[in-house]
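Lecture 7, part B: from sequences to assemblies.

Below are the input chains for today's worked example.
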Amino acid sequence: MSAVSARRRFRLAPYLLALPGIVWLAVFFVVPIVMTLSVSLQTGDVERGFQFTWHFANYSDAMGRYHVQFVRSLFYGLTVTGATFVLGYPMAYWIAFHGGRRKSFYLFLLLLPFFVSFVIRTVAWQFILSDNGILLGPLKDLHLLPSNFHVLATSLAVIGGLTYNFLPFMVLPLFVSLERIDPELVEAANDLYASRVRAFLRVVFPLSIPGVFAGVLLTFVPAAADYVSASILGGTRTTMIGNVIQTLYLTNNDYPLASALSFILMAVLIVGVMVYARVLGTERVYEVAGG
Amino acid sequence: MTTTAAQRPVGQPAARERAGPGPRRRGQSRLIARLLGAFTWFMIFYLTAPILVMIAFGFNDTHSRVNLRWQGFTFKWYGKLFDIPDLSQALRNSLLIALFTTIISTVLGTMMGLALGRYRFRGQGATDLLMFANIAAPELVLGASLLTLFISVQFQRGFLTILLAHVMFTIAYVAVTVRARLAGFDRTLEEAAQDLGADPWATFRKVTLPLIFPGILAGALLSFALSIDDFVITNFNSGQTQTFPIWVFGATRVGVPPQVNVMGTLIFLGGVTLAVIQVLAARRRKLD
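Predicted structure of the full complex, as structure tokens:
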């Protein structure tokens, strides 16, 4: 009798353990997303309330009004992903292959920014890049830059701020995949008369593809959906879709339009990620894992 | 690669290098390594530059809230740390929310991690997918949809809604960390304990818990760090309540006072100290 109940309890155990967390995620993550979908098809305003009317026009409305910011966000996201990749790969490579016993020390230095609030780091860049600040001020005094030169409120400032904030997210997965590569493989390639470039392109880079895949995902999605950098470092001509969604929700109280926009954003990012995984990711990942 | 080797006719000058890369080539690769090393150090400087600026301007002898030009060294802001009541309140809110979030998420996340790492059950794939979606979804979407929920049920936004939101986006991180720790878990240890007469709870406390503790600790630290630093999700669900990042963000329009630099510096030092202690403790455990 007790053995039976013990076994039953055993079978129930995973459900009892997982249930509270699942319920929390269901109520505060799944339900809200379903509600967002529902609100995105409603009409009305704050005073008179919102009715569900299958109002698909919210979607065309949203894209009609905000496609510029939308495209800009995707463009910034792609640029930031490219920049972090170009800057991050050499770092990850050097730490993985030449870091020696101090590898974890370099990684620690790389992670230092995470101990400072994201907002404060962005504020610090605003300060560094300010029109007559510690960087541009001296250059202007030396007449190396025209006195009306500015970086803040330009795309460069926003992309720079995002690149700064997401660089560690690119370097870490790259490092993990590069560190796993046996240096003897590279030596073998050299012994077989592969040139250094060739050894890199044919041996090292293909083996690091899983890291590239993870790094691109970790960078692109949050960068495209960010609005802190654009708010602090940008101007009116660098508004991203995140800024629009935030304003629509918190200032205009236009919930249907805001919901439609965030749903489009989520859908585009998810579809993008899935296509990317199909075309570039999983097959290569499997190939690498299998070979 | 085999084809490239075969394409090269045997006996060509390259054959001299058979014993390994020649001296010129080795010198060249050393140069490349040097350049890459210099580049990495430069990038590390780039990554730490804003932190140095933050720390330095906490010592700036400025006379107003505007803290833009260097006006001499002072310790006075450390004495006036809590002179801005709203800012102090925001910091207190952040610390309290991070603390409560850590407690709730660590308990619920550890349970989830145990369920996923130790058992096979129906719905496991769906639970995995739920967690993956939660981690992968942009913060903006998480925050905005949660706001939709609170508006629809007319729930007053404030401290409580921030806490609910923070637990929502940190549980999965704890679960993943704990599950990773369970990956190489030897189930026979638990069976041995039970054979020796330990009841399930005693088995858990005396055998399972100590083994997965590093995973739990890492998950707890991660959720504390994520919670105290969160801006986007909090901004959607905070109502009139302010947290530290929200206050700083609001202050960017009128000038960020030096107290923010000081608080940032102290949080930075606290975090780094904790991390170093944890690394050293882990190293000692490994040595033992």
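Note for the exam: The first helix of chain B runs from residue 2 to 7. Keep this in mind when comparing with the next example.
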